[in-house]
Automatic annotation (TrEMBL):
<feature type="transmembrane region" description="Helical">
    <location>
        <begin position="98"/>
        <end position="130"/>
    </location>
</feature>
<comment type="function">
    <text>May be involved in the degradation of misfolded endoplasmic reticulum (ER) luminal proteins.</text>
</comment>
<keyword id="KW-0812">Transmembrane</keyword>
<dbReference type="Pfam" id="PF04511">
    <property type="entry name" value="DER1"/>
</dbReference>
<dbReference type="InterPro" id="IPR035952">
    <property type="entry name" value="Rhomboid-like_sf"/>
</dbReference>
<dbReference type="InterPro" id="IPR007599">
    <property type="entry name" value="DER1"/>
</dbReference>
<keyword id="KW-0256">Endoplasmic reticulum</keyword>
<feature type="transmembrane region" description="Helical">
    <location>
        <begin position="57"/>
        <end position="78"/>
    </location>
</feature>
<feature type="transmembrane region" description="Helical">
    <location>
        <begin position="20"/>
        <end position="45"/>
    </location>
</feature>
<comment type="similarity">
    <text>Belongs to the derlin family.</text>
</comment>
<protein>
    <recommendedName>
        <fullName>Derlin</fullName>
    </recommendedName>
</protein>
<keyword id="KW-1133">Transmembrane helix</keyword>
<keyword id="KW-0472">Membrane</keyword>
Amino acid sequence: MPENELVAAYKSVPIITRTMLTATTIISIGVAVHLVSFNLVYLNWSLIFYRFQIQRLFTPFFYTGVNFSFLFDLYFLYTYGTQLENSTYAGRSADFAWFIIFTSISSSIVAHYMGYVVLFQSLLLSVIYLWSQANSDRIVSFMFGVQFKAVYFPWVLVAYNAVMMGAVIPWTMLIGIASAHLYYFLDSVYPAMGGPKLIPTPGLLYRLLPAQEVAGAGFTAGGGTASVLRAAGRQGGTAAAETAGHRWGTGNRLG
């Protein structure tokens, strides 16, 4: 493929997903080839507060081992991140960015008390969980053709990982699911019950990522995601989504 086509293909990935893929690739490979020290990447709140190593707020979510699972990790992040950003969050990259930021903050707080210092799987499962809510009735094919509704997909991944890792509970994955569910509840479910919208997207993100109208899909900036998720689910129908299985990491735990 000519270079300009590669550049065009890269630029065709929506901006937030593209940023996450780029960060994951650079940081993970950088650590693997010793261009970047892992000691500068992992989550450590003491170093954040007392030595102002602010990068640790972000880097733990974009590091994963460069092994057989690496390409699958990137594929999953690309697939479900792109689908969310192009459909559920069509024209609303600022709202998608806020979802990523909110779930990352939530995950990092919980991970700190549980002793986990690498959180790529938390980020990935947050994205997959919200995608599963948006496509809850869609039929997913996993591993050897086993089919089930997409709403169960995150839990299948958790169970698969636990089996592959010898009955070890994949806490980082569960942290990501819990963070995404908290966002969904506060952003959509609770307001639909008559409560206030407690986590509106910050105005700064709208200034950095202006809303764009998408043909055939109107929206209002700052709106909740519930109606959009339901619409995306209806559009998803029962189309099959082939999903390759691989051995998922459980994240690194301090000590």
